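hey
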C-alpha cells in the first residue's frame, strides 16, 4: 500500500458508511444521519482533491468514487421511500435511469470499445438535486416539519433532472457509438 492508495481507501470507507447512514435513518436518528452524510460528503471532496492534486487518479478510483456516491444516494432514497418519506415511484425512476446508464455503458464497452466514466453536466446537477432532496427530507424530520412545499418542489426538480440527464446520456453515448461504428 502506498500514499496514492489513500483516495481509494477513502472511497471504500465511504461505501462502508452506507450501513450506518441507513441504520440512523431507520432508527429515526436524523441528526446522526445528517452527520454521517456530511462525513461522506466531506470525504468525497477530500479523496477527489487528493487524487487530482497529487495525481493519484486510478482506474479503480474512477470506479470506486461514483459507486460510493451512488450507493449512499440510492440507499438513502430507498430507505426514505421505505419509510414513506419519499414517493416509491421516485425511487423507481431514479433506479431506472441508473440501470439505463449502466446498461448503455456496458453495451458500449462490449460492442463498441472502452470508454472513460465521465459524467455529463446534467448528471452532476441531478446528483446535487437528489442530495438536496434527501437532506431536506432528513432536516424536515429532525427540525422543520413545514418544509413540505420545498420537498414537493425538490421531488419534481429531481424528476425533471432524472429525465433530462438520462436522455443526455442516451443521446451523447448513442451519438459516440454511431460515430465509432461509422468509422469502422
Amino acid at each position: 500500500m502506498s500514499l496514492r492508495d489513500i483516495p481509494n481507501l477513502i472511497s471504500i470507507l465511504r461505501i462502508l458508511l452506507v450501513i450506518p447512514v441507513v441504520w440512523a435513518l431507520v432508527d429515526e436518528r436524523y441528526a446522526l444521519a445528517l452527520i454521517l452524510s456530511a462525513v461522506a460528503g466531506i470525504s468525497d471532496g477530500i479523496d477527489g482533491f487528493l487524487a487530482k492534486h497529487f495525481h493519484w487518479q486510478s482506474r479503480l478510483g474512477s470506479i470506486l468514487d461514483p459507486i460510493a456516491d451512488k450507493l449512499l444516494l440510492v440507499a438513502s432514497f430507498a430507505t426514505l421511500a421505505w419509510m414513506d418519506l419519499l414517493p416509491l415511484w421516485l425511487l423507481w425512476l431514479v433506479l431506472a435511469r441508473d440501470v439505463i446508464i449502466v446498461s448503455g455503458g456496458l453495451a458500449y464497452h462490449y460492442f463498441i470499445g472502452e470508454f472513460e466514466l465521465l459524467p455529463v453536466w446534467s448528471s452532476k446537477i441531478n446528483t446535487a438535486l437528489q442530495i438536496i432532496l434527501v437532506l431536506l427530507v432528513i432536516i424536515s424530520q429532525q427540525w422543520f416539519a413545514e418544509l413540505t412545499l420545498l420537498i414537493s418542489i425538490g421531488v419534481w426538480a429531481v424528476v425533471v433532472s432524472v429525465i433530462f440527464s438520462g436522455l443526455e446520456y442516451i443521446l451523447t453515448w448513442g451519438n459516440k457509438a454511431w460515430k465509432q461504428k461509422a468509422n469502422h
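The two ends are 42 Å apart (CA to CA). Residues 148-182 form the longest helix (35 residues).
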